[in-house]
Predict the 3D structure of the following.
Amino acid sequence: MEEITNIDDLVTKLSSVELAWEEFCPNEITEWLDIFSRSYGTRKELTLFGLLPTVGALLGRSELRLFSTHKERANIYCIALAPSGAGKTPAAQISCSHPIVSYLETKLGDGKQILVDNFSSSGLFNYFLNEKSLPVMCIDECQGFFHKMLYPSKSANDQALTMERMCKLYDGDAWYSVKGSKGKRIGTQFATMSLIGYTAPKIFLQKIWGKAVENKNGFADRFLVFCCKGADASMEDKEECSERLDEYPISSLESVYEKVYADHNSAEQVEYTLSASAKELYRKFIGQTTEGHENDAKVAKNLLKLTLILHVFYDRMKKGLESSLGPTPRSISQATMKMAISLCSTLSHIKALMDLVSTL
C-alpha cells in the first residue's frame, strides 16, 4: 500500500477505492442508475448513497428478523464525500429531496412530512411528536451540521443535536422530555431516522472525522462512508443519457419510493427473514470480520440494514423496469446477502482508511 503521510495522500487513496458494482448490484439496475445519474450530471455512486438511507426510511418500522430477540430496522446513516463539481447537489435532489417532497409527500397530502428540514434538537423532537413516519435527513452540505455537534456551543440556547442523541436515533431508542410546572413527560417510545450527508472530503476528514473517531463513543461506527472522484459531465452526455432514460418504463425513483412506502407503512408491521443459507453466510462473515476489530463495532447491524434495503429496493426496481406487479418476498436469499456483504466489505475498508486521519 502506498504510504499515506498527509491529508492529500489520504483523499487520493480514498478516491481510488472503487465499488464492485458487478458484485452487489444487478446489471440492469446498475445500468439504469448510471444513465439516470449521468442525465442529471452526477455519478451513480452519489445517487446510491442518497437512495440507501431514503429507502431505509421509507421501510418505516419494518424489521429483518435474525431470531426472535434479534431484529433490525433499515434506518441507516450515510456520508458521501466528493470534490466540488462532482454532482453532490443533483445526487441529493434526485435520490431523496425531489421524489420525497415534490412527489411522495404531495401525493400523501395532509401535511405529511418524511424529509426532515429542521436539523435542531427541538425541531426533530417536535417531528416525532407529530409524525408516525420514519424520517430521512438529507443534508447537501453537512460539514456545518456535524461541526455544531462535535464542537458544541456553550450557549444555553444551543439546539444542535448531540452525538449521544444521534447514536440513539440510529438505535431507535425512546425520546422523552419533561415539560411544564407539573413535570409532564412527553415524547415517543420509538425515535429513529435515516441520514445522508454530502460534502467535500479534505476539510471533513481533518475537522469532522478525526474528531468523531477521537471521541471513541460509537458515533463514527454508525456511519457508512464513501469517497469518490469528480465527474466530468458534459452537456452532450447529459442530453444523451436523458434521451436513453426516456426509453425506460421508469425515469425517476418516484414510483419505486411510492410503492416501498405504501407496502411498509400500513397498520401491520412487515417482518423479513433470512433464508437458512443467507443466515449461515451472515454469521460466517460477521464471525470473521468482527473478531478483534474494535472499529467494526456496528458492522453486524449495518450489514443487516443494507441487506434489507437492497432486498426491497432491487425487487421494486426490477418490477418497475419490467412493468410487473406483485409483493416483495419476505424471505431474503443468499444471493442478496452476498451482494450486501460485498458492499459492506468495501465500505469497511474505506472506514479503516479514514481512521488513519488520526495519525496524520
